[in-house]
Amino acid sequence: MSVEFCGLEFAHPIINGSGTFDAIAALRAFGEDLRERFPFAAYVSKTITLAPRAGNPPPRLWETPAGLINSIGLPNKGLERYLSEDLPQLAELTAATSARAAIPLITNVMGATAEELSRLLEACDARAQIAAIELNVSCPNVKTGLDIGADPRQLEDVVRSVRAHTAKPLIVKLTPNTADVAACAQGAEQGGADAVSLINTLRAMALAPRARAGSRTGVAAVGEGGNRDRWLGGGSGGLSGPAIRAVALAQVEAVAARVGIPVIGMGGVQRAAHARDLLDVGATLVAVGTESFRDPAAGAKIASGLQ
Questions:
Q1: How far apart are CA 170 and CA 179, in angstroms?
Q2: Looking at residue 51, what DSSP letter applies?
């Protein structure tokens, strides 16, 4: 069930969504078993920025009846420490073993300007351990990401301006929070992207629970003027999980019909049947995200189900 993607060979079509599976923490939790039975055919890092980021203040998560809202805010060590600390560990974890071939490592990066993105791409291009780069222009918690990714012309210009800074496959992760996601995908393709991935989370918010009469929880659910407080420390966040699966299916189909480059589909994938749906509408690979929080082995089970 191997898949060819941008010149890379994957054992199967299931990968992780950026930021949804901390492989280094998982290795501490599961030990050598993770190395031998890694749940994904490629590993996508969390988003890396030039400078370290602390992320949004807590609370950062809110569960909905059919999904999860996160307002994490892209916390990371910054490019320098990612390359010196995390990349060697990830490269060792994804190296070939007696049980499997090497797992391609994809680094996800984000910058506020084309200049920042160019520096990130150049640094990743110089590292042989990195097989491909994913450009995050779609995170709804970071204003600059949404501004770049939501406008087809601006996205095309940015991708074209940074394309020359890497010879590695360049994946552009699209935002679903735009009027015409297929037009944005086309802009990324015309700018020189080798592939696109979608969907990222949908903009969402949650209100603090209204305190019941006699409650002693101390939760301040009502602000000045009688208005309910927002629950998430960042004010709003991004919705993922089963709640967005139907949206993902529609947007992946629209994008796959518009572009001639490979598409990575994601959004609410819990079972092999959900991955099969995305493959059937034109995706080459399928990423698993929120489901890995519930079941760290979800990726492996979905890949097995496809086989």
A1: 24
A2: S
Q: CB-based burial of residue 274 (10 Å sphere; 0-12 exposed, 13-18 middle, 19+ buried)? A: buried
Residues 6+ apart with CB under 8 A from 248: 176, 198, 199, 265, 266, 267, 268, 278
Nearest to 132 by CA among 197, 62, 182, 86: 197
First to last CA, the chain: 7
Instruction: Kindly give, in sequence order, each residue whose CB lies less than 8 Å from that of residue 243, ignoring residues fewer than 6 positions away.
Output: 64, 65, 66, 67, 268
Model-wide pTM > 0.70 = yes
* Contact yes or no for 46/170 (Cβ under 8 A): no
The residues near 147 (Cβ < 8 Å, ≥ 6 apart) are: 154
> Between the CA of residue 229 and those of 47, 219, 294, what are the distances in Å?
29, 10, 28
Per residue in 201-259, pLDDT (tens digit) is 999 999 998 876 655 554 555 555 557 899 999 999 999 999 999 999 999 999 999 99
Residues that are catalytic: 139
Q: Which of 38, 71, 74, 34 is nearest to 54 (CA)?
A: 74
Instruction: List the one residue out of 199, 215, 208 whose CA is nearest residue 289.
Output: 199
pLDDT for 180 beyond 90:
yes
Distance in angstroms (rounded) separating the CA atoms of residues 35 and 43: 12
Give Cα separations from 234 to 39, 87, 148, 175, 238 (angstroms). 31, 29, 20, 19, 11
For the chain, state the CA radius of gyration: 19
* Residue 237, SS3 per DSSP: strand
